[in-house]
Amino acid sequence: MLWLSRSWMRRTACIPRSAPGLLESVYEAALAYELEKRGLRITRQQAIPVVYESVRIHTGFHADLVVEESVIVEIKALESIAPVHKKQLLTYLKLADKRLGLLINFNVALIKDGITRIVNGLKD
């Protein structure tokens, strides 16, 4: 998993950021395409159910991308990432029983400045 998160900056360098204001779905499709082209298994908009007491809510949330069945990628195209976006991804990781997540904001000059790594189970 570590090699995957470290290689993101190189892999996302080719994603089209030259057209500001694109929808998050465009960045999602482009990133999925680039990662699949490199041989990684990608699932787009994977449904993750929420269990409340004994009730299973099937429409809990949809992960933008799940890479190699182990990394959840949440894609944003915002002026800035708020603390709630990081907490949201951490909640997704807990619900999906995954350890690693990447929050990628494409609305930055350098993509490396838009990547935040979130680890489930890491103490604050």
Question: Could you give a short description of this structure?
Answer:
Helix content is 31%, strand content 33%. The protein has 124 residues and is of the alpha+beta class.
Q: What is the tally of beta strands?
A: 5
The end-to-end span amounts to: 20 Å
**Beta-strand level of the residues, as a percent range?**
25-35%
Pattern of helices and strands: HHEEEHEE
Basic shape: globular
Q: Specify the structural class.
A: alpha+beta
- Summarize the biggest pleated sheet: 5 strands, mixed
Q: Considering DSSP H and I runs of 4 or more, what fraction of the residues is helical?
A: 25-40%
Strand order in space, largest sheet = 1-2-3-4-5
What is the count of DSSP helices, taking H or I runs of 4+ residues? Answer: 3
Give a written overview of the molecule.
This protein is of the alpha+beta class and 124 residues long. It has one domain (2-119). It has helices spanning 2-12, 24-37, 83-96; strands at 42-52, 55-67, 71-76, 100-105, 115-119. The radius of gyration is 14 Å and the shape is globular.
Notable characteristics:
124 residues, alpha+beta, five-stranded mixed sheet, 31% helix
Helix and strand layout, with pairings?
Elements lengths: L1 H11 L11 H14 L4 E11 L2 E13 L3 E6 L6 H14 L3 E6 L9 E5 L5
Parallel strand pairs: 3-4
Antiparallel strand pairs: 1-2, 2-3, 4-5
